[in-house]
Hints:
The structure holds two protein chains of two kinds. By secondary structure, chain A is α/β, with parallel strands linked by helices. Chain A has a single domain (3-279), classed as Thiamin diphosphate (ThDP)-binding fold, Pyr/PP domains (Rossmann fold). Chain A has helices at 3-32, 37-42, 44-54, 78-88, 128-141, 160-171, 192-195, 201-208, 220-228, 258-261, 266-279, and strands spanning 69-72, 148-153, 177-183, 211-216, 238-243. The longest helix of chain A is centred in the first third of the chain and has 30 residues, at 3-32. The two termini of chain A are 29 Å apart. By secondary structure, chain B is of the alpha/beta class. In chain B, 40% of the residues lie in helices and 18% in strands. Chain B contains eleven helices and twelve strands. In chain B, helix 3 packs parallel to helix 4 (80-89). In chain B, 56% of the residues are buried. The interface between A and B is medium-sized, with 31 and 28 residues.
Amino acid sequence: MSPRVDCQSASVDCKELATHIRRHVLKMTHRARSSHVGSSLSIADLLAVLYRRILRIDPAHPQWPERDRFILSKGHGAAAVYAALAELGFFPVDELDTFYQNGSALAGHITHAGVPGVEASTGSLGHGLSMGCGMALAGKQDARDYRVFVLLSDGECDEGSTWESALFAPHHHLDNLAVIVDYNKIQSLDRVENTLTLEPFAQKWTAFGWSVREIEGHDLGEIEATLRALPFEKGRPSCIIAHTTKGKGVSFMEDSVFWHYQAPNTEDLRRALQELEAIA
Amino acid sequence: MRTAFIRALVELADSDERINLVVGDLGYKVVEPFGERFPQRFVNAGVAEQDMTGIAAGMALCGKVVFTYSIANFPTLRCLEQVRNDVCYHHADVKIVSVGGGLGYGALGMTHHATEDIAVMRALPSMTVVAPGDPIEAELATRAIVEESGPAYLRLGKSGEPRVHGSRVSFRLGQAIRVCEGADITLIATGVMLWNTVQAAERLARGGIQARVLSMHTIKPLDEAAVLAAARETAGIATIEEHGVIGGLGSAVAEVLAESSELRVPFKRLGIPSAVGTLIGSQEYLRNAYSLSVDGLLNSLHSVLIPRIAHRVYVSAAGA
């Protein structure tokens, strides 16, 4: 097995999907004048690898019982997941235009109702990991080999419920469960370190009984190699702390609290798309 | 009641492999029969009700029927948002069981008095709310909520509740059981107040007032037809519940009466007054204090409801 070669070839189609996701996210948040563009750009590379290379899913059969389950626990990053699902063919790309609009299925926080491919509705933080634990436990009980992936924000690690689940999963040896933390180090009002320090972050997960790896969350090759190595240890849930940059891919949005809530205006959108074009 | 519940659940789980029980580190000497018989389908989530509820929802989304179990307010209020979002929004097949609904844990203090749970759970979309009136109803309610797919809240008493029914009572969700016949007034009881209500009705009968007693075990969906029939056919209605007077059975019945334009019937909610409960004591002691004992119920009925209907009761008795 030669994961390096595998990942290099993977990088091409993942990079393409990541760029598509970013382009959609910018257009969607611009059109909707909605928040969370930075949070959505932050996870574009993680999602691209997951959806293109890792998740065992079938867009034609979204309820396939053997499918891997992906939960976006940071529900405010919905635009990026909707974009990935549309690009994969779960629903028409045109539908992304309805994001945030009256009568749309595509709520600002990820919702399952009427959206094929979405496993769980979230938006209030600290819910996704519990549901993921339940899905992983059910999988073990039924001797199914599907896996469960839960993408957390760093901010939602302030929630006590996240740590209730962090205790639960190792106790029950849920090695079919993987947490990915989008550790972009900025939350709603301020930087994580100025709000509630998470460090030593990896050690916390380790101490709770998780098998932990830290990665560069925008390195497509590293993301894929890491996800392909799951579970990191038999009998333990895996935690990937992905060091990311909020607003990644658009220079003037990167690493800025401002772009947690700010929606791109017409000029912002033009400049952002131009930048994406240049690196594509 | 909790024993009747667990016995029914074990029987159900024998023939239905989807059934799981997830507890929040409570249920000592209650839940063991399930855990011993189905170790793979029994989970103690620890003292972590939010996680317990989210886990249950996740399992349900993978095809399981999951009972969560704890006492007093822990499986409802502590994890209310998980109940709302994870369970109700996903229409997950999760059945929330609370033991000690009302004042069952009276001496343990205010934290253990479940006195707003019906109101809160009733307000949640797609949530069925059931408070069985005796051990027989508890068993039948357990079976009924499994048959009906989707979220349900089962509010149980604790232990030692007297049996009101013979074993052959007909039980359907959303359908009140007429426990006593009477044409003068209607007493609508839910949950653990059923026994005292029946006792009060018998005492009223001795005084010449025939009370219809309804066991309103399902508060949502409410048996509106039974409420309207009571309003048409009897001269007054009282609701009786071991729950705050705001938002529970009394409010549910009042909503039906208020929206029925043609009916004007004297009506009284009997329950726990809306004030922070600083009283400590046994369930019996607290029932006395809140006028929910048999004597207390009779006093309330005689002082606030019966005077308003005396004329109609008299006419009805004379006409009979």
